[in-house]
Design a protein that fits this description.
The protein is an alpha+beta fold and 483 residues long. Among the domains are: 99 residues, no CATH class; 98 residues, Aspartate Aminotransferase, domain 1 (Alpha-Beta Complex); 75 residues, Alpha-Beta Complex (Molybdopterin biosynthesis moea protein, domain 2). Helix content is 34%, strand content 17%. The chain contains 14 helices and 19 strands. Helix 4 packs across helix 9 and helix 6 packs parallel to helix 7. The structure holds pyridoxal-5'-phosphate.
């Protein structure tokens, strides 16, 4: 296949070149009626709809079918889909496609919130599988095959295994192939959230892609590590166990009926980029990365942590929390992907032979930020131990969940033992710390308060009101939804 071709991009260019007159949606009429700044408005020329020659994402037969077939070819999948509602919609659709209400799904505990939303919407029962603690990144890491084996033994009725590979921090572990083998022995599919690994297809030194390791359905945020626009994702199927038509039907139900052609074109372009990424491009990226890391190492106050994914690095500064370091870097114009109590996470640019980032000016800015911080730093206490979870826990979030008028906000004194109305989600990374329906423990309350004090931002059932922290709990106490 000629991957330099971008059928969707080319169709849009051809359409525009004919100077079409618009009597159709969208109402901005190729940007004419838009009040956006001129450079943003210029892109609206391509913000069109399902017009003749541009195909239809929900019943593709022309350029979108061609673009998706090229995507499948680039990734070695049987069938691939363009997603315009992020990996979020991929997670929703893949879980719904294999779970009916009441079905059991084995789910890695440190999954993105969209996975728990998918379980809730499907009315499924999740068995939470505790991942291994990753010493390198000091975060919840990859799933051990032994944990999955125990879960498969205890829950022979499970409809599938849901794995996050890699984690937000770039941890992959080494057990995915074994996990796939165990699940396939039981003839159930392995669903992978590879939101952070769309570039793994490029080969060593990047970790192997989940498709290469035999996964059945894989969702990837092409916008996170490739060149696609925010919201633009890929979904791949490579399985004889999965019903692809059913999956496609759920994708169609859950995605907008007006998919953005600008997003679709960016997916087509990202596929072309990844498929044409040459060994020389990779060497150029790796050489740039090495220079960058060497310069960072020279800043003695910084600790540089390399993860299993060469596209991610972590920076720590002694006696400063990640949040403080993040703020200091931001004041020097450097914006990181996320901060936690220990560190900040950088997502590096997947550079090519022809593109570059100036390490000198970037490192100068980082150096001035960390020096300033070093002079002012107030030592912060960093929790050493993760909250322990049992190896397997059952999560039931079904329609029996209480309605919103049974919710109430309570302060920390009154929150212990109360059931949460919604999950508590530090954002980013969007991985729930405590799950909807779970009974709050003193330890969890302290952890959330400590994180808020350090500068973490939360979504869901917690809010900070001045110095008061409140939790949204159920006014009527039911059974703990987790057991
Ligand atoms: C592991 C993981 N999965 C899924 C998602 C959702 O991806 P998207 O933003 O493409 O919807 C995210 C977003 O941060 C994520 O980190």
């Amino acid at each position: 296949m000629d991957h330099t071709k971008r059928p969707v991009v080319e169709a849009l260019q051809k359409f525009q070149a004919a100077q079409p007159v618009s009597f159709h949606v969208p109402g901005h009429k190729h940007g004419l009626l838009s009040g956006l700044p001129s450079d943003l408005k210029a892109a609206l020329r391509y913000d069109v709809t399902e017009l003749t020659g541009l195909d239809d994402l929900h019943a593709p037969t022309e350029v979108l079918a061609e673009g998706q077939a090229m995507l499948a070819d680039a990734y070695g999948a049987k069938q691939s889909f363009f997603l315009v509602n992020g990996s979020t919609v991929g997670n929703l659709a893949m879980i719904r496609s294999i779970c009916e209400p009441g079905d059991v799904l084995l789910v890695q505990r440190n999954a993105h919130k969209s996975v728990f939303h998918a379980v809730e919407l499907a009315g499924a029962h999740a068995i939470l599988l505790t991942p291994e603690w990753d010493e390198q990144t000091c975060t919840a890491g990859a799933l051990a095959a032994s944990t999955v084996d125990v879960a498969l033994e205890r829950h022979p009725d499970a409809k599938g295994v849901f794995v996050t590979y890699p984690t937000y921090y770039g941890t992959t572990g080494s057990d995915l192939e074994l996990i796939v083998a165990s699940a396939h022995k039981k003839e159930i599919p392995v669903l992978i959230d590879e939101a952070h690994g769309a570039h793994f297809v490029l080969g060593t030194p990047f970790p192997p892609s989940a498709l290469q390791l035999g996964a059945d359905i894989v969702v990837q945020s092409a916008h996170k590590t490739l060149s696609a626009m925010t919201q633009a994702s890929f979904l791949h199927v490579n399985s004889h166990i999965v019903d692809t038509d059913r999956l496609s039907r759920f994708l169609s139900m859950l995605q907008t009926s007006s998919p953005s052609y600008v997003l679709l074109a960016s997916l087509d372009d990202a596929r072309s980029m990844v498929a044409n990424y040459s060994e020389k491009d990779k060497q150029a990226f790796l050489a740039w990365r090495l220079t960058f890391i060497e310069q960072l190492h020279k800043m003695k106050v910084l600790e540089v942590i390399e993860t299993e994914d060469p596209l991610k690095i972590l920076l720590r500064q002694k006696e400063a929390s990640g949040y403080t370091l993040q703020r200091a870097l931001e004041s020097a114009g450097i914006f990181t992907e996320l901060a936690d109590e220990r560190q900040v996470l950088f997502v590096l640019p997947l550079l090519t032979e022809r593109t570059s980032y100036s390490t000198d000016s970037i490192c100068k800015a980082i150096h001035s930020a960390v020096q300033e911080l070093q002079e002012e730093a107030v030592p912060t206490s960093i929790p050493a131990e993760p909250v322990e979870h049992e190896q397997l826990r059952k999560l039931v979030i079904t329609t029996s969940n209480p309605v919103r008028d049974q919710a109430q906000w309570v302060d920390t004194e009154n929150a212990v033992g109360r059931q949460l109305m919604d999950s508590i989600v530090p954002y980013p990374p969007g991985i729930p710390l405590v799950l909807s329906g779970e009974q709050l423990t003193q330890r969890q309350i302290e952890e959330v308060c400590h994180m808020i004090e350090s500068g973490a931002k939360f979504q869901g059932a917690v809010r900070a009101n001045g110095s008061t922290v409140e939790f949204e709990v159920m006014s009527v106490q039911g059974d703990d939804h987790i057991g």
